[in-house]
Amino acid sequence: MKTKKIAGLTILLIAAAAAALILAACDNSYGVFHEIQTEKAQVGTDIFKNATVKALGGDGSKYYAIMAKVYAKSTTPGSVWSVLSVSNDTDYYCSGFASDEAGTIYVASSDTASTALKGIYSTIDSGANWTKMDSGEFASKIVDALYYANGKLFVEAHTETDTAATYALYYYDTVSSTFLTAGLSGLDLPLKGLVWGDSAYWTITSSNVYTSATESGFTSTAESTSGTPSAAKTLAGIAVDSVGQVLVTTTDGYLYTRASSAWTNKLIASSVVLGVLAEVPIDSTPSGYRLMMAKHNASYGYYEYNATTSAVLQGNDSSAIFVPTASSYTTTIYTKPVLAIYYSATNDTILIGMAAQGTDTYALYSNTYSGTAWSGWTAE
Amino acid sequence: MKRKLAAIGALILLAALPLFGQDKTDSQDYFGGLHKKGSQIISLTTGAGVPLFILPADALATEATPLYVGASFSLSYQYFIANRFTIGGSLTGAFNGTVGGRTLFVAPVALKLGYWWGKQPIEYTVGMDLGASVLRLSGNGMITPFAKLGGGAFAQVSEAWSLGGQAYWWLIPEIHTGTYSSLTRYANSLELSLGAVYHF
Fold first, then answer.
1. Are the C-beta atoms of B64 and B54 separated by less than 8 Å?
2. Residue A75 counted as domain residue
3. Per-residue pLDDT tens over the stretch B25-69
4. How remote is the C-alpha of B150 from its chain's centroid?
5. 69-128 in B: which are within 8 Å (CB) of A?
6. Facing residues of A350 across strands?
7. Helix, coil or strand: residue B7
């Protein structure tokens, strides 16, 4: 009898716990069928399905999405994406891409099998004509990335031994028309970006910040002024905003800002890994800006950060600027790591590139400001 | 709208079909005694969940039919509290894909009321389920009221077993309160399923 009573009580307790759990899972602010009603079927280009877009860019007349090769599309509505031929070659691996945002793009083209550099090329007419810029400087190196900042093109390259890789930074000297060392070499970690802000060049690895007032003046001594993201942090992304402040994200949820020769920091979200970031105007005026910051906690996607009010919003928040409906974010970006964010001022369009492998969805979405509101994310 | 009206019409016809199957000669037999007071039924059904419409329409909606046809599975128990009249319960699970690539999961738990009749070997039922349903989408969820109304026809294949099909109209009122009352929606769908009925 006693056993039956205990069993009955146990069942009652389990049922109560289950009911409590179910009730706790309810969210009065989340309209399940409202979400479904506002969903939009995403039909993008097969090129970007289950793919990874690692970088983005534009030159005013074309958008560029970098995967193994560079894919290009005219900004004219209705245009389609296709492989960009680099100096009459489509059998290449894109090991670096940069844009000066003034009509010139730069592509590091490498051999698909050996990774040996075929050449670093520039074009001022969206790929119709190409100029080879290197002359054998990277013959014994592997080019990893191109960066453009403050009128200078930089090249990150590494050398490999059986046990380690060593990274170094170079810049293009327009006087000698050759690539010269930027002074940063012997790094055991790759760079994650390079910007010009607060009157200096800035670059980061995952553990250090490096700076130089000139393109050739870097040293391998990491920045150590007060407030610099410490070695205890893992640095994730670097960008510069519209007033020239340098912004660095960390994998423990912090945003560091360098302005007026001093660093400040703000916790954006605890226990959240931040990633790449970009400042995007909230309209075409622009009457304000938001920092879009890639994030990874229980899901992926991005935050919208208002630096003026310090408000941090999830991409699908009801107050979020860049989506008209929460489902516009949840069905497109929410589940995928954001790797690149690009804003085209000419076309009031944001491109966002992600790692979509295994998701059976797309790696590239666009979002255009119509004059009154953002369209929401649409698969490219 | 035409699609919705056609679906409503089809459901009414389907649900009403068993009524035409009533036979006076069954009045004392109660389907070989299987529909008599004290009998019991366990039924298992599986089939398609056809989304019909969601009310009210959303001003931001871009797709006419944001849900795809899905699948449902149901287990129910019924006890004849009087000749032909049953009361019982049902556990159901249903999935529908959305145009945005997500999956809506619906899990209703309901009280079941039924009316059974027929002349061997065909038996008919009409019934109604009333209860609550768990809705899950992208890790978010709600518990909502739930109702379904419909009927079915089953052919007796042995002393205890019958096989057949059924059609039920599902109504899921997703009620939100306070400042979120604008999120309230009424989802309607049609269950078309095949099933087995065990009498004991």
1. no
2. no
3. 555 788 988 999 999 999 999 999 999 999 998 888 888 889 999
4. 6
5. 98-102, 104
6. A343, A367
7. helix
| Two structure tokens written together for B157 | 């294949």
Q: How far is B119 from chain A (nearest CA, A)?
A: 41
The two tokens of residue A373 are 């509101």
Q: What are the chain B neighbours of A23 within 8 Å (beta carbons)?
A: 143
CA B76 – CA B86 distance, rounded (Å): 11
Residue A122 CB neighbours (<10 A): 18
d(CA A123, nearest CA chain B) in Å: 38
In this predicted structure, what is the pLDDT of residue A49?
A: 96
> Domain for residue A243, yes or no?
no
What's at A89, amino acid-wise?
D
* Whole-prediction pTM: 0.84
Q: Give the pLDDT confidence of A31-45 residue by residue, as tens digits.
A: 999 999 999 999 999
pLDDT band at A109 (very low <50, low <70, confident <90, very high): very high
Find out whether A105 and A60 touch, Cβ atoms under 8 Å. no
Identity of residue A248:
V
- The number of folded domains in chain A is 1
Closest by alpha carbon to B135, among A33, A264, A220, A210?
A: A33
In eight-state DSSP terms, residue B182 is G
Between B198 and B19, whose confidence is greater? B198
What pLDDT score does A208 carry?
A: 95
Structural domains for chain B: 2-199 (2.40.160.20)
CB contact under 8 A, A331 and B142: no
What is the SS3 assignment for B142?
strand
Query: Which class for B42: exposed (0-12), middle (13-18), buried (19 or more C-beta within 10 A)?
Result: middle
Task: Answer yes or no: is A324 within a domain.
Answer: yes
* Helices first, then strands: H and E counts in chain A: 3, 27
Position A304 in a domain? yes
Which range marks the domain in which residue A331 is found? 268-380
Nearest C-alpha neighbor of A305 from the set A317, A293, A294, A296 = A293
